Amino acid sequence: MKNILFILSLFLFTQLSAQENLQAKHWQEDLRFLQNTVHKEYSHLFVKTTKEAFDAEVATLYKNIPNLESHEIVVGMAKITSLFKYGHTGIFLNQKDVNFHSFPFNLYEFKDDIYIQGVHKNYKKALGAKVLKVNNMPIEEALEKIASVTNSENSQDFKAYGINYLGSPEVLHAQKITKSLQNAIVLTLEKNGKVFTESFVVMGDEERVPTHRGYVHQNENWLDAREQSETPLYLKHLDKIYYSKYLDKEKAMYIRHSRIADDREENTKDFYNRVFDFVENNDVEKLIIDVRLNGGGNSYLNKSIITGIIETKKINKVGSLYVIIGKHTYSAAQNLVNELHNYTNAIFVGEPTAENVNFWGDARPVTLPNSGIVAQLSYAWWQGKPAWEYTEWLAPQVPVKMSYLEYASNQDPVLDAALSFSGKDFILNPMQYIRELYMAGDAQKLATEIVKMIQDPRYAFFDFEAELSKSAHRMLGISSRNEEKQAAIQIFSFITQLFPNSIKAYKNLAEAYLEIGDKEKAKALLNKTIAMDPNEKIAKNIKEMLHKN
């Protein structure tokens, strides 16, 4: 075994030699080229970070380059481009010119932690094990260390793709999870109640873990933790872009759509027209479109899906149309679910998506002159929602996550939730409904309906306190009229009645009274929040407010 590790070690470092031969000044030239290109042609990307923060990170890396190994410099550049937090923008570490390596396992985040979903057959013992430590570092700490390297748009994007940066020896060293560039890594694992360690040896140059739609699928060399005697619908026929199945017992038509593209055998428009025709002429009560594994493609193909649903009135109603989303729903698939959310009566089930609802996408390759490494920089703005509705993802109304055991035993709690959900009297957009009641002046019905929705478990996805507070803050901030400020105070007061144990609710009401100059009521409420607050930091902040006023 020692001889094998030694040979692999030589192999690993030999493959890095091309970039190792670059001098520090060449790397610094590449970094300046990247910096200048961003400022000159892609300054629109400065949304989630500032030019000053970007330049500061560039200056730090530029200074450190003479003391870094080539892979550390590449990771440093990846960290800089990841500041933009747009999934299409970054230095992707799986590109040929980077030539990083991989350990032979695939990590997957389930409801109850991170597991080894797939592994090379030589490591069968590790299959299906929960990951506790990486190189004796707790998994949570290791994930924090690699998060800054990944160009993840949100935490869902990181869970879907970023966590497998833990399978790169170069990243592990650059982020100080290992002390040196190692060709083997030890994971501490838990399986069947037993804790053990497993050492994984790095794979050869250009070898990668063979994932498809986020999973390793079993073959002669690779193992899948899922029991192989059957295949759940969401993983069936993944060689096809989309397929449909009528579920007779549930009177539901199920569609699994895993890419926004035309299948070779049938284009998107024809496929959906055939599905809609079946829905119209058969006993179908629900249509379920599953895009939880859809990583995008050509957004212009979405139109026929949306118009077809709108025209199929039998199914385009609350309780009859469901869309399954998840942490692999991304890019053109994000545009699709935005449109479904905007123009249809779909109920969304599963996990939040991996992309912001409005995002910079469609990246251009920018090749660094000395290393040949490619940075992808986005140039196209996709705005599926009004600017003031900006959110980090599209969240489901019916949140469901899959556990490892459910995956391993071929269960699908997400589809089950869609099939069993009752859409009777369900409000798709609670805040819009609340606004309509408010504008109609029906205060009694408004109060009754809000309380009813808060108590209904189907609305567990919706943060009523936060959304009502946003509306009141908006009303308080945009108007100089006393009537509207008083209306904001009424909303804040109502929130304290709905959530009598919320410190934040009383603090917001106090700030509203300060806004209109009623210091006595404000001080009484602030003193109440101090009495309620077990958290020193919040209490300190409130005491400062009292002192100022």
Unreliable stretches, pLDDT < 50, 5 or more residues?
Answer: 1-17
Largest sheet, described in full?
A: 6 strands, mixed
End-to-end distance:
72 Å
Radius of gyration: 27 Å
Helicity level: 40-55%
Which structural class fits the helix and strand makeup?
A: alpha/beta
Fraction of residues in β-strands = 15-25%
Give me some keywords for this one.
549 residues, alpha/beta, six-stranded mixed beta sheet, four-stranded antiparallel beta sheet, 20 helices, globular, disordered N terminus
Question: Would you give an account of this structure?
Answer:
This protein is 41% helix and 17% strand. The longest helix has 18 residues, at 24-41. A 6-stranded mixed beta sheet has the order 10-11-12-13-14-17, with helices on both faces. It has helices at residues 2-15, 17-20, 24-41, 51-64, 70-81, 139-147, 155-160, 169-174, 268-281, 303-311, 332-343, 404-408, 413-420, 430-439, 443-455, 464-478, 482-498, 503-515, 519-532, 536-548; strands spanning 105-110, 113-120, 130-134, 137-138, 184-191, 194-201, 211-212, 215-216, 222-224, 242-247, 252-257, 286-290, 321-325, 347-350, 358-367, 374-383, 398-399. Strand 15 and strand 16 (374-383) form a beta hairpin. It contains 20 helices and 17 strands. It is α/β, with parallel strands linked by helices.
